[in-house]
User: What shape does this take?
Amino acid sequence: MRFETVIGLEVHVELSTRTKIFCSCSASSFGAEPNTQICPVCCGMAGGLPRLNRAVVEHAMRAAMMLSCRINPVTSFDRKSYFYPDLPSAYQITQSTAPIAVDGLVEIETAQGKREIRIKQIHMEEDAGKLVHDMRDGLSHVDYNRAGVPLIEIVSHPDLRSGEEAQAYLERLKTLLRYARVSECEMAHGTMRCDVNLSVRPEGANVFGVRTEIKNMNSIAAIRRAIEYEAQRHVDAIERGDGTLVPETRRWDEEQGITKSMRSKETAGDYRYAPEPNLMPLAIDDGWCARVRAALPAFPEVKRARYTSELGLGEYDAELLARSITVSECFEEAYAVCKNAKEAANWVLSEVLALLNAKRMSEDDLTLDGARLGELILLVLDGTVGRANAKKILAQMMEDSTLDPRAYAESQGFLICNDLSLIERVVDAVIATDPRSVSDYKNGKEKALMALFGKCMKELKGNCDPLLLKRILTDAVNRI
Amino acid sequence: MNGALKNIALDEMLLVKGTTVSAGSRMLKGCAALFDSAVAEKLRAMGVDFGVRARVGEFSIDLLGETSADGALVRDGEIRSASAELLLQGSAEACVGLDVNGGMRRACAQNRLVCVKPTYGSISRHGVVSVVPSGETVSVMARSAGICREVLSALVTHDVRDGTSLSEAQCARVRESGVMPRRIALPTEMLCGIGGEVQAHVETAVAMLRASGAEVISVSAKALAEAGAAWNMILCAELCKSTARYDGVRYGYRAEQYETLDELYAKSRGEGFGTLLKCAILYGSEVLSSENYERLYCKALRVRTLVRECFSRLFEDFDAVLTPAVSKMSYTEEHLRADAFFAFRENFYTAPSSLAGVPAVVAGGVQLIGDSFSEGTLLAVADVIERGRAHEI
Assistant: This one.
């Protein structure tokens, strides 16, 4: 008998807003001391009231649009109750009745071709705190810095059919959400988490088999491994026919490469969902949607196609430029100023990315002002600054995004000299100090001219068009 | 506020920075209030003394405060309200507190005091120990309608920190003075269950109102009589979630002996909470359980809509609705021994306006309910009743 694996994914994504979803505590607790980014609201103290962060809604709207979802005109919040020390109010404010978006889809591509995976819904919710279990003193400690950090949960329909598809789906989600600046989507940092719902059925059947949930995968590769293991476990159990396959939540053990039955903290308790009375339902009108949509970037493949077809760039370069939103925007801004796609592409791909790499920075950290890069490129193209010096200017611009390339070039003496009389004076002066090279050249040694050339260029601090200098030098030497 | 008021008592449901927030419960005894409630902020800014605190029953869901962790206030076998005592003794000119289950209104009805429970959302709930967020309303009690009016005008403002706060325009309407109403409805269903003394107060009030030129007309308003059951469900459902955070993990009472996490929760809450509150929590959990959610909670929400519609229809023809606020003029420990849940039956009279969020004023031992933002009108009635009572005495 041939079996088909049926998979649905619940992905939690941490939004990259500045503050938490229901209070104004900082949402980025990277490296912060425990319990330093908290307040009475996110800590469940008496007297605090939640207030909805508008930026969270807009991040969720952008996610919904990137995933082709329908945004609900009215969205509201509910309380989901359970007791656990990392949940300060003993309920999570989430969305159950009226989530912000429904009915979307994501296109994935695998070795088997392209498929559309339907998205059931996207909803906003708050994250819980973090529990740390200290082995030494046998105590568990709670850090509430993460409590109240905004999340969206993206729930897919059970349309996925393999670990490979799941991987493609997650990577596509990551690409799109990073593109729209919704989230970093980095599983290693905990900004994207995924639970797998899996069942197996005979190929062609139209009822679902026994479903298990798998948690605790820390990377996209681990998710693929977990799916492949669990699907086989289901098949084996079905073929044995011994009734060992039961609906349950299982924990992925990365070391052993297996799933284990889990006594879940939320062991199918009744969450007793009820509306959150402190937050009024939110109306999302067409005007708001239009404004958010207008600021949304095109999909990466749309940009890639535009770069090749409209701007004449090669496939490889277009792909690299379109891959990250920061890089593509830097390129587009530079192009808008210098109007030369090939130059802009070269500078971004060869110089800017190299500088990022050297500083071990990621593309997300790019702060370079693309328009100013465009200005720099123009300075090179119109002969105002030499390429070598332009690279030095770029290095400075990477440190300081407000740097004006022309002003900086002036201050550093990088401006190319077009003053003929000055060049002639320099040439004459160099010739006067080195009659030996002059006579060597006149006696047939070409290299001697190069020596003179080098000295002149050094005097001019490299700020001279080489061809112009050569011409003036040659003329001057020939006159002797 | 013209500065005439010097001292106002705040009940234990409102946070005052630098003091403790106990909410009448052993669970929170000794816990520090981390910040000022919006009310305390306002009073502090006005230089009013609010150092006097009024005790409340555990999370203010009881009759008059008898379930306070500090014990019931009993005089001559009668259960007394701490806020009412403060006013009667002259220790404070007014008392501001949270009307959760009608306690403040009952206290005023039994003691010839004046109480205003304004339109839901009038006074910010920032810094209030929340119990039933969709219905709890910061309210004012005092010896006269004039003082209530003054305190309201100082405290009713929009607050961005409270998502249910009325807009500034709506707040302005709440603060507006009003005129004596022409037509007052007297729903017969609401006269159910009252004793002789209360009956007398109602009749006196009716006579006074008629003497001042208003029509008082008996009507039938069946929906109002159903409000109590729905209110109890919503109150307990929201309460079980609002009090879930008090679990002994981060602050508050934690049991000394426990082996597991579950025991920590069960014992801390079991020992830290009083019986009435625990019953309310269990009832609320039951109402919200997946088996009962549609059948009970959603039904209660629909009854809420019906009660609101009933009030709307009444206010098309009438300017105010007159009802009792209590069934008898004093409660004794006997009453409680006979019926542990008396508070959840006695709220029959206060539930309709709690459920619908419309304002209610208590004066002369009776309750006047008005349409949203009609506090001015209701206080005008309270003025008339006060004048009438003054002549009496």
